[in-house]
Amino acid sequence: MGATPRPAYAVLTAAGSGSRLGADGPKALVPLEGISLLVWSARHLAAAGMSGIVVTAPAEHCEEFRRVLDDAALACPWIVVP
After folding, report:
1. Between 62-72 and 37-47, two packed helices, what is the crossing angle to 10 degrees?
2. Which of 45, 46, 66, 78 could be a cystine partner for 10, CB 3.0 to 4.6 Å?
3. pLDDT > 70: what percent of the chain?
């Protein structure tokens, strides 16, 4: 008899400044093939079966991160925290 799977939550650390990439804003918002690194990462975590995702973001960009994730229509719940 197998164990009942427990919920698994991911912490997506996305608070990098992007300065080493030469970006004008957070690294997580830099596009890769037209999709931000934030969305790429969150979609893959959701596809891996996460029950939810906690995204850490620079405090001054939390609202922007929320808008980007709203548009991404992820397959699991998420929250953005500073």
Report:
1. 50
2. 45
3. 99
